[in-house]
Amino acid sequence: MSDLSCIETIPCVKQGDAYDLRIALELNGEALTAEHLPLLHCVEFMLGDGVRKVWPAEGSFLDGAFLMPLTQADTFSLEDGETVEFDARVHFIGGAVVGLRKKLRVKVYDALSEVILNE
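Request: output the structure for the sequence above.
Response:
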């Protein structure tokens, strides 16, 4: 059985923020690098019950980590004051799918303004 883990932790998210979450993964003790990407069909990331992003369609890979884009709408959809779960699953070419052995917990901080700021 394969062991997938997250090397870097995601400590918190604030409602209304928009940025890329940096997610470095490790499989069987070895960091996933750009050399592994041709072996991957996709990687699914879930934050809470409703924020789902799938690499390579959404996000990128840079300097040894996946960058999961979060929009203001994504972060506003997370319940403030709660700790939500973060999960990831890697789908390999050939069919194997491996998920994080232990889901991470991410604290969601409240924003005073609930207005999405335009560019």
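The first helix runs from residue 72 to 76.
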